[in-house]
Amino acid sequence: MGDKAHAHPGAAGGVPTADRPSAVRNVVLVGPSGSGKTTLVEALALTAGAVNRAGRVEDGATVSDYDEIEQRRRRSVQLSLVPVAWDGCKVNLLDTPGYADFVGELRAGLRAADAALFVVSAAQEAQSVAATTRAAWEECALVGMPRAIVVTHLDTARTSFDDMTRICAENFGGDDPDAVLPLYLPVLGPEGADGHAPLTGLTGLLSRRILDHSSGERTELPPAPEQEEPLRAARDRLIEGIIAESEDESLMDRYLGGEDIDVATLIADLERAVARGSFHPVLTAAPAAEGARQGIGTVELLELITRGFPTPLERTPPVVTTPSGKPRPAPVCDPDGPLVAEVVKTSSDPYVGRVSLVRVFSGTLRPDDSVHLCGHGLDATGHAPRPCHEAEIRVGALTSPFGRRQNALDRCVAGDLACVARLGEAETGDTLSPVGDPVLIEPWSTPDPLLPLAVRAHGKADEDKLSQGLARLVAEDPTLRLEQNPDTGQVVLWCLGEAHQEVALERLRSRYGVQVDAEPHRVALRETFAGRAAGRGRHVKQSGGHGQFAICEIEVEPLPPGSGIEFVDKVVGGAVPRQFIPSVEKGVRAQAAKGLAAGHPLVDVRVTLLDGKAHSVDSSDAAFQTAGALALREAAAEARIRLLEPVCEVSVLVPDDYVGPVMSDLSGRRGRVVGTEQSAGGRTLVRAEVPEIEVGRYAVDLRSLSHGTGRFDRTYARHEAMPPQIADRVRTEPANGSPGA
């Protein structure tokens, strides 16, 4: 798989470097939370000699989970890079969070990688693979990304490798379950009283050798007689699966004719099939025992990565355009070509400042280079980017991350990953290209954050820092969206889930020193008149000097939805001087903006000025503004004011099994189901209209209702009259403004 002789450990801390794309492997680890991804990265780093002792997630001592939040939570919440050296290759291991709230970090890892290891736990996935893992598998399949599967926790009681292989084939094999087959069979030790049988080694199906770890060292042994029959059956199926993917059409005929196919030929075909993404081997792994230098299956995994996974030269390059949107030729993975690189992750370090993890697709990035930074900013969907920003900047220090440690690099070649400190105002998704010939890489898609979190500064000292801290959070994480709601006056941070909210608040406090308070999210309601009403505004004051005199009479009537406020002048005979009529309108509109019954803006009414009185000396613009506002308030006191609430068009995509519960739940939220559509993969799209007040926490509730398999989006449709009983409750809770928010 290419020339590996040009990758070598770097001088600083044994961190590897590479000077050619063929010596790089970029691998992302994908799997649900608790499946063992971080533990596996630690075991691979130990086997490769990058660490002397494997850290434990429970102790907060792993290389990947170095962030304070991760160490406190004992769970990954961000993408991390752990580079190791193996067989002349630099292997960039990208550890991703498994929790659905941090899918943005997973998407960034998929963008940076050329192949994926799907980690599934035998203890967790007893019946089926997690929905988020299946969704990631489908994403990889769409772009043809090579994938392998690693089964963990086989030493847990009542687990079965055969069952897990079958489950993986059913979930990942699609129409061809023989494309998902094991390369090794686990060897288990004696079962204890608790039903727990320790994993002691592996049996290689092609080599027909046992890789035994029972002594603490990896040794090769021949299989025992009782292992021959299961080994033969599994080996025959694997060989048939490999030959089915072979480019040599005569191989199957030779095999069926009884010819013993050379193992080297089988391995070469296997490696090509894995690199093409048409065959997905299943392996197993376990961390090293206390004092051991290698985990079980880690050598085999590293061999698969370096020999079977593709180099960056084999990756389909991303689509690029000019900043104005004109198509440009796809970048070529050539260290001597023009620079095309992308910021796949942005983070902040309390000592270094902003740090950007960069994937170089073409050219070579060096410290002190002048480059063109261009970014559309990733929005939540990837379809409506924020305004383009551009700047010419100088690249600062170039480093290779290894946990908290940053090791200096003198360059980063095409296909490799590196961190850049103080890269101007770079945001996640920005493109680096040559000065004078800028390009822009097409953004990757991220889910729309639909769970609102309203925040306010805890004290005056935090007010100035709040906007800056929020802006930095959004620049780092494309799955966060910041909104300054003009109707409610709230600052709203839109997130993917409750854990996402908690981490965002924690980062504001710990990373940016901003103390914030969360408050109930208020929905922007409106008010309107239910019927015709009249009002008289009288503003007469005399207290020495110039007095104030203004009287006006108005009539208010409701208009169709969406009409806004219409002001009509029907004064006759000059009862209100012409110069003061705009003053009455200004006062009416100002009062309408403040609201009448519950403090929400008034809409969809016609206000007609019918009559009034003025004084030649004491009338003024201010007096008639006040009279107009008083007249509108008096009219409201005599009429029934109706509250209007925003209604959303909601589209929910769920597996067919959950359509009934979803429709029932939407009805319970005062929703109206307007239709359903069959979608690919045994899923149904449910369309409904639901009051926005009722979907404030729907991102969390749908995940629970559909066991993580459903997703939804929503768009504003219109404002509608709120039911009287709910409107009465809102009026008694004006500070909240949205029941159940």
Briefly, what is this?
By secondary structure, the protein is an alpha+beta fold.
Structure characterization notes:
This protein has 741 residues and is of the alpha+beta class. Helices cover 26% and strands 30% of the residues. The strands form 9 sheets. An 8-stranded antiparallel β-sheet has the order 19-18-24-15-16-23-20-21. Strands 4-5-3-6-7-13-8 form a 7-stranded mixed β-sheet, with helices on both faces. A hairpin with a 3-residue loop joins β15 and β16. α1 packs across α9 and α12 packs across α13 (621-638). The protein is elongated and about 115 Å long. The relative contact order is 0.08.
Major sheet attributes: 8 strands, antiparallel
**Count of helices?**
16
Number of strands: 38
Q: What would the average pLDDT be, to the nearest integer?
A: 88
Over all CA atoms, what is the radius of gyration?
A: 32 Å
What's the overall geometry?
elongated
Helix content: 25-40%
List the quaternary state of the chains: single chain
Name the poorly predicted regions. 1-13, 378-385, 735-741
Q: For the terminal residues, how far apart are their CA atoms?
A: 56 Å
